[in-house]
Amino acid sequence: MTIIVASLFLPYTPQFEADVTNSDTAKLVESSMIKMDCNNQELGNNKQERSSSVTSANSHYIGLPQEPQINGEPLPRTTVGSPVTAVNYRNEMEMLSSEQFLEELTANATHAANSGIPQSNKPASSTSTAQRPSVEEFFSAPSARVCSPAQEASASSISAGHATSSHHNDLSSNLMKSPNLLFDSHPSRARSSSKSAVITPVSKSVPDVDPAVVDVAKVREEFQQQASLPSMKRVSGSAAADSSSGSAGSNLRYSEKFHDNFIEDTDSEDDIDSDLETDATKKYNVPKFGGYSNNAKLRASLMRNSYELFKHLPWTIVDSDKGNGSLKNAVNIAVAEKTVKEPVSWIGTMGIPTDEIPHEVCHEISKKLEKDFNSYSVVTDDITFKGAYKNYAKQILWPTLHYQIPDNPNSKAFEDHSWDYYQKVNQKFADRIVSVYRPGDTIWIHDYHLMLVPQMVREKLPKAKIGFFLHVSFPSSEVFRCLANRERILEGIIGANFVGFQTKEYKRHFLQTCNRLLAADVSNDEVKYHCKIVSVMYAPIGIDYYHLTSQLRNNSVLEWRQLIKERWHNKKLIVCRDQFDRIRGLQKKMLAYERFLVENPEYIEKVVLIQICIGKSSDPEYERQIMVVVDRINSLSSNISISQPVVFLHQGLDFAQYLALNCEADAFLVDALREGMNLTCHEFIISSFEKNAPLLLSEFTGSSSVLKEGAILINPWDINLVAQSIKKSLEMSPEEKRRRWKKLFKSVIEHDSDNWIAKCFEYVNNAWESNQETSTVFNLASEKFCADYKASKKHLFIFKISEPPTSRMLSLLSELSSNNIVYVLSSFTKNTFEGLYNGVLNIGLIAENGAYVRVNGSWYNIVEELDWMKEVAKIFDEKVERLPGSYYKIADSMIRFHTENAEDQDRVPTVIGEAITHINTLFDDKDIHAYVHKDIVFVQQTGLALAAVEFLMKFYNSGVNTTDNSRISLSRTSSSMYVGNNKKHFQNRVDFVCISGSTSPIIEPLFKLVKQEVEKNNLKFGYTILYGSSRSTYAKEHINGVNELFTILHGLTAA
C-alpha cells in the first residue's frame, strides 16, 4: 500500500549546468536568447569583449554578479547568515553610516515602486543604484550609534584612509547585483566550477487567438512547430548555488529538507522565480550597433544549438522551491516521525519548461525521479501548462476563490481555450495517477490547480480511495456561481471520497454551493450526489513546533537577534510578512498605521513597522499607491536619518533573519482582506516565546478560526479600528500578553502538521469504508426504474417531503403530475400545504401524516378521533413548565412537542420518555399513539397514512369516481389547484406505484403495503424508495436524498 500525493509541482526538479566558455553557448548569450547565472566573471568578461557598447553594470543580456573586491582582490565567500562571519564584507562597508543605509533603503523601495519592478530584478544603474546595498546588508550593517564587539573589531582592521570612494562604489554596485552574496548558506558555492552556470529553459507564451473564429488546436500545433527562437532563463545566484549543493533555495525553511511554510498562496507566488507562469512583464533588449542577423539559417542554427545544448548538458536532481511548502514539510515530517508508515509517492510537474529539452532527456529525468526520489513526473507542453496554470488557475480560479471576481474580458484567461488547457493538464495528472495506482493505495490530491482530477480518476478507478484538500479559501455560492464551468469543477471535486478544507466556514460554503448549483443533498458533513456519499470536513494545517524550536536555538538566529536589538535600540518593532498582491491589504495596513501615528504622535520616534514583501510585483500602480503612503508616513519623522517609522522590504529574508525579527517583534500584524491559512502567524507565536508579543490578525483569514482565542482580531476595512488595535497591542500589560500568548501557543500545538496529516488520512479512510458499506445496500437501479415506468400504463407516485419544496421540485412535480397521479405526504396542515404547492396543478396532498387527503381539489377526512387532544395538551402543559424553552403546537389532528430550544438539554431525554410513556399508557385503548422523530414528539391517531394510501388505491382502481364512504366523509372544501376530471386515471388499474421518503414510523407501513400488493400480484411494479439513512425493514430501493430522486424523475419527464 502506497500513499500517492498529487500536487502541481514535485518536491524535486532537474538542474542543468552549462560551460560558459563553450562557443555555442556564447553565441546564444550574445543573441540575448539565453539567460543564466554564472559562478564567476568569465562569461561576463567575454561578453564585454564581444560587445563593448554594453557595460557589465547595465547588461540586460547576462546580468552576471561579480565578486566584490577590495584593492583589486576578490573577497572570500563565507557561510550563511551569521553577522560574525560577514565581518570581512563589512570592512569596506564601514564607510557607510547607518543614516546612509536608511536613506538608501528608502530610496530603494521608492524607486522600485515608481518602476513597478522589484529592485532586485532591475538592472543596476551606475548613477542611481551604485551605492545601494542589499536589504540583507542593511540588517548586517553596523550602526553608527551602536556597534557590537565583532563589528568594532572589524572596523578597527581597516582605516578610513585605506578605502577609496571608488572602492565603496564598486562594492555597493556588486552587492546590488548579488543581493544574497553575504548570506550564502552553502560554502560549496566557492568550490563550484568557475566555468559553469545554471540555466533553465523559458516557456513559450500562449498564442493569442480567438477560439470563436480560429481552430485553436491547429493554431497551437503550428505555434509549437514553428522555428521560433529558443529561450532560456537566468536563475538567481542564491537559488543556483543552493540548488547546486542539493537543496532548495527557498528563504523560508526549517532545514534543508523542508520548505517555505507560507502555504496559502504558495502557488500564486511561484512566479517569483519561474518563467513557467510569468510573461506579463516583458523586457526588451536593445541590440548592439548594427543589430543581429535574422535570416532563416541563423534562426534554425540557434534553435538547433539550444536543443543540442540541453541534450548534452549535465543535469542533477535538486530540491525544488516551487509548490506548497507546508504540504511538503508536513509529509516529510510525518514520514520521518512514522506518523505515516506507508511509503509516499509524489506526482507532479518537474517545475521547469520542457519544450526546449529533448524527449530522451526528459525520459531520463523522469526515470531518475521515479527510481531515486519516488516521484512520478507529469510532462506537458509549455503552452498547455501555462494556459492552464497562469491563464485559468491564476487569473480565473485564484481571484474568484478569494472574492476578487475577475472582470477583464480582454484577458486571454477569459477565452475558452484557457479552460481547455486546464482540463488537459488535469487529465494528464489523472492518467499519471491511474498508471501508478495499485489496489489498496490511497490517492491524495491537492489544491485548486487539480480540481477536476478526483472525478477523472474515479471514472477509471471506481473503487479507489481518493482524498482532496483545498489549501486556499472557498467562497460563498453567490461568488462561486460566477465561474462559467462551476458545475464541472464541483463534480470534479466530489469525485473524491473525502474533501478537506482549512476552516469550518469554507466547508459550509462548499456544502451550500453543492446544494444550490448541483441540487445535491447535503448534511453537516456530507454531500450525497449520484448514488455516492462524499465526506466533507475541515482540518486546519499547521507547523511542526519541535523542528521550529530547534531552528530558534541556532547561533545564527541568536546573533541576528543581538544585531536587531542594537540596530533598533529602544524601538518597538511591528513585523509584517506578506505576498505582494491586493488581497493582502498592504495599502489599508499602511493607512491604518499612518492613522495610528497621526493620532499618537508620541510613537513616531518609538515605533518601526518592518514590512517584508515576498514575490515580484505585477501591479505597478498598486505598488505606487502603497509607496505614496509609506513616504507620507516616513515624512512624519523629524529626522528620517534617526527615525524611520516604516521599513519596506520588497524581497525575502534569510530564514534566520526572519526568525530573529519574529523573536524581537513587539507585535505581528496580518491585515489580509481574504486569505486561507497563514502559517507565518504560527511561526511568529512560537518565535515569541520570550516576549509573548501580541498578534493582530484579520478576521478574514483562515487562521483567525484557529487563533481567535488569543489574537486581537481586526477588520482590515475598518482603518480606525486597526489603528486603535495597534495602540492596544503596544500598550498591553505583560500579564495580558502572557495570557493571550498561552492560548495562541495551545492552538498551534493542537493544530500542528502531524495532527493535520493524521486527521486527513483518518477522514479519507472512514469516508471510503462508509461508501463501501452503503454501496451494498439495495441502491436504486435507475435504468430498470425507467424501463418499468415505460412498461406500465397507470402510475401512482407518493412522495413524503418534510421540508418546503424548492423551485426545482415544484417544476418537476408540475411536469410529472400532468401525466401521472402524484401525491405529496407531509405533517403540514391543510392550509400550509396548499400555500406551499399552490403553483402545481393537478397535484394531490396528504396532510398531517395522512389525516386529510385532497382528491380532485376536495379534502377527505381520514381521521376519526379528536377528543383526546385536550387531555394530551394538559400533559404537555406540565412538561413545558418542567422544561423551560420547550413548547407544543396543536394542529387539526395532531400535537407536536418541541424540545430543541430547551434550556436544559440534559433533561430532554427524560422528559420526552416520560411524556411518551404517559400518553401511550393512557390512550392505549383509543388507538392514539405518541412517538418521537427527529427529536420531536408526535401524538396522533395510528395508521392514518396507511389508511390514506389504501383509500387512494381503491379510489383509482374503482373504474368510476365512487368509493365506499363508510368511514370517509367528503368535506365542502375545494381548491382551484385541480383542473377538470382526468378520466384516464380511472380507465385502468394502477400498475406502477412508487412511494419514497426518509425512514419514519409513518412511511414504513406504506412500504410494507406495496410489498404485499406486489407479492399478491395486485400490483405489477412496486417501488419503495428510501432516502437518507438506510435503516429500513420494508424499503427495497435506496438513494442518497430527495434531490437525487428528483434528478431521476427528471429523466422520466424528459423521456
TrEMBL record:
Any one GO molecular-function label of the UniProt entry: trehalose-phosphatase activity
Span of the signal peptide: none
Main localization, broad class: cytoplasm
Keyword Membrane appears in the UniProt entry: no
PANTHER family: TREHALOSE SYNTHASE COMPLEX REGULATORY SUBUNIT TPS3-RELATED, TREHALOSE-6-PHOSPHATE SYNTHASE
Domain of life from the UniProt record: Eukaryota
Gene from which this protein is expressed: YMR261C
Organism in which the protein naturally occurs: Saccharomyces kudriavzevii (strain ATCC MYA-4449 / AS 2.2408 / CBS 8840 / NBRC 1802 / NCYC 2889)
Keyword Cytoplasm on entry: yes
Name used for this protein in its record: TPS3-like protein
Any one GO cellular component localisation term in the record: alpha,alpha-trehalose-phosphate synthase complex (UDP-forming)
Ranges in coiled-coil conformation: none
Cellular localisation: Cytoplasm
Gene3D superfamilies for this protein: Glycogen Phosphorylase B
InterPro entries: Glyco_trans_20 (IPR001830), HAD-like_sf (IPR036412), Trehalose_PPase (IPR003337)
Biological processes annotated in GO: trehalose biosynthetic process
Entry keywords, A to Z: Cytoplasm, Phosphoprotein
